[in-house]
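Worked Example 4.2. Consider the chain below.
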Amino acid sequence: MLISESMQYPDGEYPKTQLPWPELIRLTYSEIRHTTNTAMAEGLTVSQKINELFAYRRIPELLNLAGIEKDSPFVARLYALQEVIYALDQYLETNWVVKKKELKKRWDEIYDALSAFGIRKKDYIMYTSDVERYERYELDLRKNKLPVNRSFETLYSCKSCDVKLIRTLIYRHAPDLKKKLREKEWEYYDLITEVNDDIQDVFEDCESWNGNRFLISVLVRGKGQTRRAYRDFLDKTGKEARKHFKKNKEPYHAQLFKWTMERLQETEDLLRETMDGQKLYLVNHSAIAVKIKK
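Applying the procedure from the previous section yields the following structure tokens:
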């Protein structure tokens, strides 16, 4: 059987955690995504942003599958780690000229959050290698090294660095989880949802120095080439996912495949709606447009 409704938080609803910020809101996945544009205009709180990310990436269901209590200290530590990763991301997005001491401050916070999981100092680099690569890609913007010159797979796999780290910690905490669903099985879901994020956030990201590949592609390669490239990548990824999951008949694989296909359809629809809309001209007035050389 598939993961039953009783085994999931309703529609991606979020666990309460004992964190220093105000109690996290308990919005469902559908409610969060429905109100994203309005909320973005007003400015999402950190807790709202983490809720949206975790809901979309099915972290509550994975925790439940792993048998991890939603009110456990472990879950609170996951939220705390995600918060300090967002602090690094925010610094990079709001400062074109970055200072090494400011970057070090944020990395010290990330390492402190990792240490709460019992991870040894000598292993920090192993766990954060993708986060460091993401930082390097964002810093490359300052050298006019654009994300459109990297493959979809390379870039969007890297942009999943925070979620992949969260999952790795869950699988580390619950070793038997891999017997139900291997960590690698999330690959296609991650690629598709990262593409969705770039398209969804294109207008929000006009206001910051963000390495949004979709935004920069429209800016330097135009709408037509961008539409074709993203459509082809989504089609290719969908075909590969169907082929991959066809070989796996386990119930949890079937559920993940269902989610993957749902996100694929949503992202294809979002791509079409965004490309056919009347607002893409705004990328020409984005913060990053002033900085990069086409």
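The mean pLDDT is 86. Residues 111 and 124 are 7 Å apart (CA to CA). Compare this with Example 4.1 before moving on.
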